[in-house]
Each structure stands twice: as structure tokens, then as C-alpha cells.
Task: inverse folding
């Protein structure tokens, strides 16, 4: 047997100069984990501060810098890239039946760009950070902030090129490298969702790049784009920023949809319910997501008519998401359901994402948004979607494909325990924030009126549970690398080309180009296939 | 619990309540089905599965349509209320608010000034005319269910009608720098007689209090506006041809471009700071900009003065 990609060369060089998509995925996996950890430490400090109404860190400036760092790192250096650059990079060629991505060297370049951006942002944080929040609203950012705004913005700018390169690479690969027989409608949903994600990345990220450039110029040269005292418009920044950042929410969540759409059929031994609807819902989301940015500005001074239009469109984008939830639940009907860790994470995703989505209806309803926006209700809402949803999906995928990636089985008991702890800890942390928000507690407050203290205490206690939940996988996954059982080619009895090659795969992925003869998810109609 | 201190706050709560009910129903359905299936169809169970149906489009269309109908209903509800919250009644009492890192400055038409506090009468529509001196702030009173960004360089307004006396939190909810969390205050709603009493003994931080309009008139003279617009704003004060300002507020102004704009706070503000932007039909663009010479509070007083030049003074 040919060597696996992991044993094909051991030097540092063979890793840092590799063009193998699987090795690049591992490089990304390491970097992403580091950023998640850094962002997580900041989150822990934020929750620590909020235990007392006076603020335990004792300094509003430090608090502001912490949530800015938390937001910047989590959004641009974890949530946006996470699933595409790790699982996507590893799996796209395998699921397509291809040898590698279309542009292997561009793939490596994206990683370097990502790291340069990441290191720049960490450097900016170390020398003093920014206190503007991850949204960088002007004119606070351009005229009043004392932080290292330009450096932080440059870091995000650079990482944006990494996104664009990755997106292009994925789009071209999916168009050109499908195995013989794999028509568009025989393509697994994971590939569809990464395709939709890539389209958003390629179209929206340049807008962000341009916006950040304008921001930097405004700050350095004071060119007067955003400053009203010289004829600029402070709202222009928000329009441009959300024109990227709203679609970006779907960059974060669509790959999660893809992951879950693979796992639920596999562990229900059943075809994905409504395959075509799920696929077209992804495309619909990608398109409509460009038309709803104004719902971030219902109280920011946009006109009455734009508020009405954006509210209506926001409801429109929620429809395809609702379709998906029903389809996942429908897939479980009449199945043979096994509760291994990936499935528990995936079910956790469906539950938390549904909560996040439903509370999105609150903030899309104009008059309700007036009361709820800019409060902890919004903080809870986006954490349910982005963290409860997306991070659960990421963990689901990581466990599902861990045997394929590493050739080792993780300890199942620990996996299940962590999934349950994360679900419980998450709800304990963020559910109280919905109530806090309704009661009026503003977000981004380092100290707050004392009547909000009990609920904040509850939330901080939940964060401690959640932290344990997130640390467990770090422990047992690393443990499995050394002591785990060797994984068979297809431990879950799943369909899909990636399971037809050994775990871990050889460098060239498949000994011979596979041929696809049927649609995805053709699980046999038989009694339970139990995994022992 | 959070008080419902205005008429509309009750309606906002109904809307939120309806959203909660709808969410709980859908959550019960989704979580209920998941739990049911987990229990019934776990791998070892002997449950009768039948043949899985492959024709799912009927279901798909049915639940897509149902979802769309429900969403549309919610949209209409939220939008209708928002439109009403957007449009102030004509008789609203106007109070001026200026945000600044990190305080709220309030000025009543009578010239009473307060900092980080807003006193107001119940049972009467109040409209706040707000602007910022530096960054974007946001004026938020949870007990009233209102919130609106306060931007530099323009006026934003909100209105509400408080219904019960009491003291409520005032927050700034737009990140505005290091002191953001301390940019708070209280809104004190009082019965009409109490409010009158408060007005007559209320705070007057800078010596003798004059009404905003009166202070505005002094500025009007001092800045030299009267040189062109006439001492009482009646127009053509001297050699220069300038429009009369009497009865201007609230009227429709014809511009040199042919467009017609409503003369409101925004229009007056822009005419003072950027006089070249909208030229009144029949006049030369010769008015100098007063940008940099008047601060936000002085501007508001000037505008209060212009507002006081009611049409009744017209010959
Ligand atoms: C233990 C888990 C976490 C806790 C306790 C936590 C806590 C917080 C807190 C207290 C804030 C500040 C809210 C405000 O004042 O507006 C915040 C903001 C935020 N969090 Fe988290 N967080 C956690 C995990 C995450 C994760 C995993 C992500 C992303 C993967 C994330 C993304 C964000 C973002 C994007 C913001 C907005 C930052 C901003 O307002 O500028 N959080 N989080
Ligand atoms: Cu403020």
C-alpha cells in the first residue's frame, strides 16, 4: 500500500511547502484551533468581568479591548474560515473523487495569507489592541479611537484575500474536478453548501476589502468619506460594512448546514429528506443574503421605506433556513438512528440553530427590533446561530471525519459526554441573555445596573460549563492520536466517495479514479447496521 | 420586570408575546419530533418503519407555504407598529437632546437644561430632536421600548407618550468609546402639574434662564444673521437680498433646482451649516457657512428661534 498522506515525508519542509490539500487542511486545523482558543480566553474574561455589576476587571477600556479582540478573532479568524478551510480543504477533493483541488499552490498561498493576517492581528492586540468592537463603526473608529485600528484593519484585509482565493479554488474545483458520473444532482450537500459559501466569499469579500481600505484612508488622511463635518456620511460605513457582513453570516452558517446534511442521513441510515430542496435552499440563501443588510440599521437612521423593505426581505431569507430544519427532522423519521458523538453534535446544531433562527424573527419584526436591538437579546441571538449552530456543526464534522483525517478513532464515550456538556453549557450561558436583553441591558457595557446581576451570574456560570465542554475535545482528540484505535475505511457505514479510500487516505487520494453511479445517501433499506 | 411606561410599550409587548408564542410552538414541534424520533427509531428499536416515501415535494411545498404565510403576518404586525412609532403627532412637545462622549445634554424649550436626565410630563406626546457632537450614540429607554441612534451632523427624532409617573433607565446603546457604559441617566415622567412646577424651579446651570428661542434671538443678532435676514427675520435686512424667515418652519420651500423641500429641523440646520446645498429659488448662493462657529446647542437655539417666528407675526 502506498504511504498515507501523513507518513509521506516527515520534515518540517514537507509540511510548510506542501501542496497536498490534506496537509494544508491540517495546517489550517492547527491555526484555527489556536485562534478559537485565543478568542475563547477573551470570552472567558468578558464573562468574568460581568459577574459583578461594577465590572470585575475594573477598567472599561480593557473590557472594550477584550470584546473587540474577541469579536475580531472569532469572526474573521475562526467562524468565517473554520469549516471551509479545514473540513472543506480536506474533503472537497475526496468527495469529488479528485486528486487535489484545482489550484494546489494557490491553496498553500491562502494559508500563508491567513497566517500573515492572523499574526498581524495578534500583534495589534499585543501592542494595545482596538476598542471599537468588531464592527468598526465610524466616526468612532476614524476620529476618536486611540487603538491600533489601521493595523487591525490591514490584518483583516489580508485575510480577506485568503478567503477569496479559497472561494475561487473551491468553485473551480467543483466545476471541473467531479468524478465521472457525478452530475450536479449526485453531488453531496456538503459540496453544494461549500459551493454556495464560496460564491458569497468571492462576491462579498471585495466589498469588505474596499470598505476597510476607505476606513484606513479616512483615519490616516482624513479624506472625508465618513466624517459629516467635511461632508461625509457616518451611515455610509454601516451600509458598506453590513453589505459584506450580513452575507458573511451565511459564510459562517452554510457550511454548517452542509456538515449536518451529511451526518444526519449517515446516522439515521436513511436518504436525506428532500435533497433537492435542501440544495436549492442553500442557493436561495446565498442569493437573498445580499439583500438584507439594512436590517442591522432599523434604528440607525435609515429611511422608513428602506426599513420596511429590509424587514420583508429578512423574512424571505428565513424561509429556506426553516425548510432545512424540517428536512433534517424529516430525515430522522423512520430511520435507524445511532447516537454517536457526531450525531449528538448534529442534533445539538439543529436545536440551537432553530433557537437562533426563531429569535431572528424577533429582530426582523421592526417594532420589536427597536426594543431588542443593541441589547443582550442580540448577543444571545447571534451566539445561538453562530456559536451554538456553527461551532456545534464544526465539532460534529470534526468528529465525523476525524477517523478519515487521522486514521484514529476518538473515544466515543468522551465524545458523547462533551456533546451533551456543550449543549447544556451553551443554553445556560446564552439563554439568560435573551431575558437580559428584553429587560433592556445594553450590549458592550463593562458595568451595568445592579438589577441585571443575577442573570449575568447565571450566564457566567454557564460559560464555565461551556468552557469545560470545549476543552474536553481538545484533550481526547489529542489523546486519540496517540492511543486511539486504528480506524477502518468507513467506520460509520456512510455513503460518499471519501469513505471509499483508506483512513488516512494516501497522498493521491484514490488508487484509481472512482466512478459515481447513483445519487448520494443511498443507504440500504435494512435493519440496523450497528457500529461496534 | 420591566415597566410598560408608555402606551406603545404595551403594543410592543403584545408583538413580542406573539413572537414568543410562535417560537415556543415551533420549538415544541422541532424538539418534540426529534425526541420522539430519537426514542422511536433508535437503531435497536423494533418500531414499524414502513417504506420510506420518496415523494416529499407535497410536504415541502406545504410547509414552505405555511412558513411564508406566518412570516408575512409577523412582518405586517411589526411594520405597522414601527410606522406608527416613526411618525410623531403634530402637537408633540419638542425637547432637544445632544449626545457627547459621555453625557446626555437636554434642553427644554423654556431653556431649562439638564445633564443625564430628562424630565417630562405624562399624557402628552413628546418628540425628542437629537444630535451628537462627536461619535454615534443611541438614546434608549427600555421602559418606553424606544431607541434611536443619535448621529453627528444630523437630527434624528423619536416620539412617545409616557403614561405613568416614575423614574426609568436611560442608556446609550451604541458603542461610543471608553465611557460607553457610563453614558446613562434617568428619565423622570411626572404628572402635568408636577412637571410645570419642575419647569419653573428646574435647573438653570448658567445663570439666569431664558427660553431657547430668546437665546436663539440673541445669537441671531450676534452672529450677524439679522444683517441679511432682517432684525426680526422679516427679510432683506440690508443691501443683500435674503429670504424672509418668518413662517418658514413647516412650510414648503421651492429651491433653485425646482425641487420642493419641507422646512424642518434638518433643513434649517443644513441651511445654516451648508448654505450652498439647497438654494432657495430666486436668491444668490452668497450666504456664508456658519459651520465651526456655532456648536450643536447654539444651533438648536437658533432653530428654536426660527421656529418661534410664527406666521402670525407676518403682516
Ligand atoms: C464561552 C463562550 C463565549 C462567551 C462566554 C462569550 C461571551 C461574549 C460576550 C460577553 C460578548 C460581548 C457582548 C457585548 O458586550 O456586546 C461577546 C461578543 C461576541 N462573541 Fe462571544 N462568547 C463566547 C463564545 C463565542 C464564540 C465561540 C464566538 C465565535 C466563534 C463568539 C463570537 C462573538 C462575537 C462575534 C461577539 C461580538 C463582539 C462585539 O460585540 O464586538 N463568542 N461574546
Ligand atoms: Cu454613547
Result:
Amino acid at each position: 500500500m502506498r504511504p498515507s498522506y501523513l507518513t509521506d515525508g516527515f520534515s518540517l519542509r514537507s509540511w510548510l511547502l506542501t501542496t497536498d490539500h490534506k496537509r494544508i487542511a491540517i495546517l489550517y486545523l492547527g491555526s484555527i484551533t489556536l485562534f478559537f482558543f485565543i478568542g475563547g480566553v477573551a470570552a472567558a474574561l468578558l464573562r468574568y468581568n460581568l459577574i459583578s455589576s461594577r465590572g470585575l476587571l475594573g477598567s472599561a477600556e480593557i473590557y472594550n479591548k477584550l470584546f473587540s479582540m474577541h469579536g475580531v478573532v472569532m469572526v474573521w479568524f475562526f467562524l468565517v474560515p473554520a469549516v471551509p478551510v479545514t473540513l472543506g480543504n480536506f474533503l472537497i477533493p475526496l468527495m469529488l473523487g479528485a486528486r487535489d483541488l484545482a489550484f494546489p499552490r494557490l491553496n498553500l498561498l491562502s494559508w500563508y495569507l491567513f497566517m500573515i493576517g492572523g499574526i498581524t492581528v495578534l500583534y495589534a492586540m499585543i501592542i494595545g489592541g482596538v476598542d471599537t468592537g468588531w464592527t468598526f463603526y465610524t466616526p468612532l473608529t476614524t476620529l476618536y479611537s486611540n487603538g491600533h485600528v489601521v493595523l487591525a484593519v490591514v490584518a483583516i484585509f489580508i485575510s480577506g484575500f485568503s478567503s477569496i482565493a479559497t472561494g475561487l479554488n473551491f468553485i473551480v474545483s467543483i466545476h471541473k474536478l467531479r468524478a465521472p458520473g457525478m452530475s450536479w444532482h449526485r453531488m453531496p450537500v456538503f459540496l453544494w453548501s461549500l459551493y454556495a459559501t464560496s460564491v458569497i466569499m468571492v462576491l462579498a469579500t471585495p466589498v469588505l476589502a474596499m470598505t476597510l481600505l476607505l476606513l484606513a484612508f479616512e483615519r490616516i488622511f482624513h479624506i472625508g468619506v465618513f466624517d459629516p463635518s467635511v461632508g461625509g456620511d457616518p451611515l455610509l460605513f454601516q451600509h458598506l460594512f453590513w453589505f459584506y457582513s450580513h452575507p458573511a453570516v451565511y459564510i459562517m452558517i452554510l457550511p454548517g448546514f452542509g456538515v449536518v446534511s451529511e451526518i444526519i442521513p449517515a446516522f439515521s441510515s436513511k436518504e436525506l429528506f428532500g435533497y433537492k430542496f435542501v440544495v436549492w435552499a442553500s442557493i436561495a440563501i446565498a442569493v437573498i443574503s445580499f439583500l438584507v443588510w439594512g436590517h442591522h440599521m432599523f434604528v440607525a437612521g435609515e429611511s422608513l421605506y428602506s426599513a420596511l423593505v429590509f424587514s420583508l426581505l429578512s423574512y424571505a431569507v428565513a424561509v429556506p433556513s426553516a425548510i432545512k430544519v424540517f428536512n433534517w427532522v424529516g430525515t430522522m423519521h423512520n430511520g435507524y438512528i445511532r447516537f454517536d458523538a457526531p450525531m449528538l453534535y448534529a442534533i445539538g446544531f439543529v436545536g440551537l440553530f432553530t433557537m437562533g433562527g426563531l429569535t431572528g424573527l424577533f429582530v426582523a419584526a421592526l417594532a420589536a427590533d427597536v426594543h431588542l436591538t443593541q441589547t443582550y437579546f442580540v448577543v444571545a441571538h447571534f451566539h445561538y446561530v453562530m456559536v451554538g449552530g456553527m461551532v456545534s456543526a464544526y465539532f460534529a464534522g470534526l468528529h465525523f471525519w476525524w477517523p478519515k483525517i487521522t486514521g484514529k478513532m476518538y473515544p466515543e464515550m468522551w465524545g458523547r459526554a462533551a456533546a451533551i456538556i456543550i449543549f447544556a453549557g451553551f443554553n445556560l450561558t446564552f439563554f439568560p441573555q435573551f431575558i437580559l436583553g428584553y429587560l433592556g441591558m445594553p450590549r458592550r457595557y463593562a458595568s451595568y445596573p445592579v438589577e441585571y446581576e443575577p442573570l449575568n451570574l447565571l450566564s457566567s456560570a454557564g460559560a464555565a460549563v461551556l468552557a469545560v465542554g470545549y476543552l474536553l475535545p481538545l484533550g481526547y482528540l489529542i489523546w486519540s492520536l496517540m492511543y486511539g484505535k486504528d480506524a477502518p475505511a468507513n467506520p460509520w457505514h456512510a455513503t460518499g466517495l471519501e469513505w471509499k479510500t483508506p483512513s488516512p487516505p494516501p497522498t493521491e487520494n484514490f488508487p484509481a479514479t472512482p466512478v459515481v453511479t447513483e445519487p448520494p445517501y443511498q443507504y440500504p433499506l435494512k435493519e440496523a447496521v450497528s457500529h461496534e | 420586570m420591566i415597566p410598560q411606561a408608555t402606551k406603545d410599550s404595551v403594543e410592543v409587548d403584545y408583538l413580542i408575546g406573539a413572537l414568543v408564542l410562535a417560537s415556543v410552538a415551533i420549538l415544541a414541534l422541532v424538539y418534540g419530533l426529534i425526541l420522539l424520533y430519537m426514542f422511536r427509531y433508535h437503531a435497536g428499536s423494533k418500531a414499524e418503519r414502513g417504506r420510506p416515501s420518496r415523494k416529499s415535494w407535497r410536504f415541502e411545498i406545504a410547509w414552505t407555504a405555511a412558513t411564508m404565510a406566518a412570516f408575512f403576518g409577523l412582518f405586517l404586525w411589526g411594520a405597522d407598529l414601527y410606522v406608527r412609532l416613526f411618525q410623531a403627532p403634530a402637537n408633540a412637545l419638542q425637547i432637544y437632546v445632544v449626545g457627547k462622549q459621555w453625557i446626555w445634554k437636554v434642553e427644554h424649550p423654556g431653556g431649562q437644561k439638564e445633564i443625564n436626565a430628562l424630565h417630562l410630563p405624562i399624557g402628552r406626546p413628546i418628540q425628542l430632536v437629537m444630535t451628537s457632537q462627536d461619535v454615534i450614540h443611541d438614546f434608549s429607554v427600555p421602559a418606553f421600548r424606544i431607541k434611536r441612534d443619535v448621529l453627528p451632523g444630523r437630527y434624528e427624532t423619536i416620539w412617545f407618550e409616557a403614561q405613568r409617573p416614575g423614574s426609568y433607565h436611560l442608556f446609550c446603546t451604541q458603542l461610543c468609546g471608553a465611557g460607553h457604559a457610563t453614558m446613562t441617566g434617568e428619565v423622570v415622567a411626572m404628572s402635568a402639574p408636577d412637571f410645570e412646577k419642575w419647569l419653573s424651579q428646574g435647573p438653570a446651570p448658567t445663570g439666569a434662564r431664558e427660553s431657547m428661542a430668546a437665546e436663539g434671538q440673541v445669537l441671531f443678532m450676534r452672529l450677524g444673521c439679522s444683517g441679511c435676514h432682517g432684525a426680526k427675520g422679516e427679510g432683506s435686512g440690508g443691501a443683500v437680498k435674503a429670504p424672509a424667515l418668518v413662517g418658514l418652519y413647516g412650510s414648503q420651500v421651492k429651491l433653485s433646482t425646482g425641487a420642493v423641500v419641507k422646512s424642518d429641523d434638518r433643513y434649517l440646520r443644513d441651511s445654516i451649516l451648508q448654505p450652498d446645498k439647497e438654494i432657495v429659488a430666486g436668491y444668490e448662493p452668497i450666504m456664508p457657512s456658519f459651520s465651526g462657529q456655532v456648536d450643536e446647542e447654539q444651533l438648536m437655539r437658533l432653530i428654536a428661534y426660527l421656529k418661534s417666528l410664527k406666521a402670525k407675526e407676518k403682516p
The two ends of chain B are 56 Å apart (CA to CA). The longest strand of chain B covers residues 93-100. Residues 38 and 44 of chain B are 11 Å apart (CA to CA). The helical segments of chain B are 7-40, 57-86, 192-201, 212-222, 225-229, 265-273, 296-308.
